Amino acid sequence: MNNKISIILYFIISILLFSCSKTKEEKDDIIIFASSSLMNPLIEICTNYKKETGEKIGCSFDSSGRLREQIQSGNYADLYFSSSLYEMNMLKDMNLLYNDSITNIVKNEIVLVIPKDLNININSFYDLTNDYINKIAIGESMTSPIGRYTEETLNNLGIYDIISDKIIFGKDTREVIDLVKNDKIECGIVYITEAMLNNDLKIAAENKSHTEIIYSIAVLKKSLKEKEARDFIDYLCSEESINILKDYGFGIITYPAF
Question: Signal peptide location in the record (predicted)?
Answer without folding.
Answer: none
